[in-house]
């Protein structure tokens, strides 16, 4: 491989990795939700509709997505387009939890299937220190409960 080609490949690999990262203003730490593990917290103020970060990962088609064993980090972006952030530990949006309480969600996943990404947008002003919560949707929880019959979430 030529030096120019190696540089090109390295540059684009780093550029793709950079796109996974947030612009700052968030950090992962222990969630306020019992047994949730990590959560994502604002470290700076955000205003309504701000893009906080992006949910990216391995891009999959429907057939591939159906065969993913652990679907905890699998997101359907649109018809036949899924992203799986299970192995993408640098994707900060993967730490956003669903608190399962209406009126408490403060971010939404703005799905962009053509770009293979979901933008995380503020639903209202968010203060530093707030944990970010999104509504995963009823299909996520139906699937979760089917695969975890001994510990269903209501």
UniProtKB/TrEMBL annotation:
Gene: Aste57867_21405
Taxonomic lineage from the root: Eukaryota, Sar, Stramenopiles, Oomycota, Saprolegniomycetes
GO molecular function terms listed in the Swiss-Prot or TrEMBL record: histone H4K20 methyltransferase activity
Occurrences of domain SET (ranges): 24-137
GO cellular component: nucleus; polytene chromosome
Protein name: Aste57867_21405 protein
Domain of life the protein comes from: Eukaryota
Record GO biological process: regulation of transcription by RNA polymerase II
Pfam families membership: SET
InterPro entries on file: KMT5A, SET_dom, SET_dom_sf
UniProt xrefs under PROSITE patterns: SET
């Amino acid at each position: 491989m030529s030096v120019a080609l190696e540089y090109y490949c390295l540059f684009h690999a780093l550029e793709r990795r950079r796109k996974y990262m947030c612009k700052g203003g968030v950090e992962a730490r222990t969630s306020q939700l019992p047994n949730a593990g990590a959560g994502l917290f604002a470290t700076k103020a955000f205003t309504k509709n701000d893009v906080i970060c992006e949910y990216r990962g391995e891009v999959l088609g429907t057939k591939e997505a159906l065969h993913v064993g652990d679907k905890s980090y699998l997101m359907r972006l649109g018809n036949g387009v899924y992203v799986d952030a299970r192995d993408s530990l640098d994707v900060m949006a993967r730490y956003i939890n669903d608190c399962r309480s209406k009126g408490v969600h403060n971010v939404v996943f703005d799905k962009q299937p053509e770009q293979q990404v979901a933008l995380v947008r503020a639903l209202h002003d968010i203060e530093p220190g707030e944990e970010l919560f999104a509504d995963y949707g009823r299909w996520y929880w139906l699937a979760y409960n089917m695969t975890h019959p001994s510990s269903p979430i209501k």
